[in-house]
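Pasting as-is:
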Amino acid sequence: MINIMKRAATEAGTILLNYYKKNLTLNYKSSHKDFYTIADVESQKCIKEVITKLLLKKGIKESEIGFIGEEKLHVDSKRKHLFVIDPLDGTVNFAFGLDFFSISIAYFYNGVLTSGLVYQPTNKNYYYATLGKGAFKNNQPLRMTYKPLKRSLFSGLISSRPEVYTKLFNIYQKIYPHVAGYRNLNSMAIDNCLLSENVFNIVINGHTFIWDISAVKLILEESGGIMVDFNGLPINFDLKDPKLAYDVISCHPGLKNEIIEYFK
């Protein structure tokens, strides 16, 4: 399934690059910090069409294929082959000409997260994982290593929602004195992929959604990491409720107890 996801992401990536650094109209959702562009919509449409076409060629019925996508895409999440799509993770970066953006696709087989892929069109990097078969960046295996908190580089993303970002600021203020440094690329997929290759050591975000984190959750777990909620409990996706928000901490398992102390 990874090859099909790669094909879809590559074609959608070409669409994103065609719109990149253009004067795009911003379509607002919940606030002036939360918007989408025509690039988001066309990328998602492309991914859905490519995956459907390739699966039909493999003899899979269209009635067995479901989709959840950030841009108002929900085609029966109970179907055997379910794809969860973020067609442009890092829309704000993309719209302002910052090249930290990506495409994220997760595959659930009979409700089980089985494959995940993240593609960065600007540098042609693919991060991907298959359940039980490890995680890779461009065919090179990924394996997370432990660093103590004081030697850790921490990525703390900032939600666009005031009730969430004020909470996150308080948490980050507690953690910051105890880590080596803080960065925020504001792309949940890329930040977690960099965690899987030991660039970051901690990634935190509040009020994030299944399309933001499902692919990277598997990539992290297959590279030896974990993704838990703010109570330290495993993240379990509710496929029946795509609009459910998740508060997440991603790190090496050895760091979990050190970090959770700052959420109490």
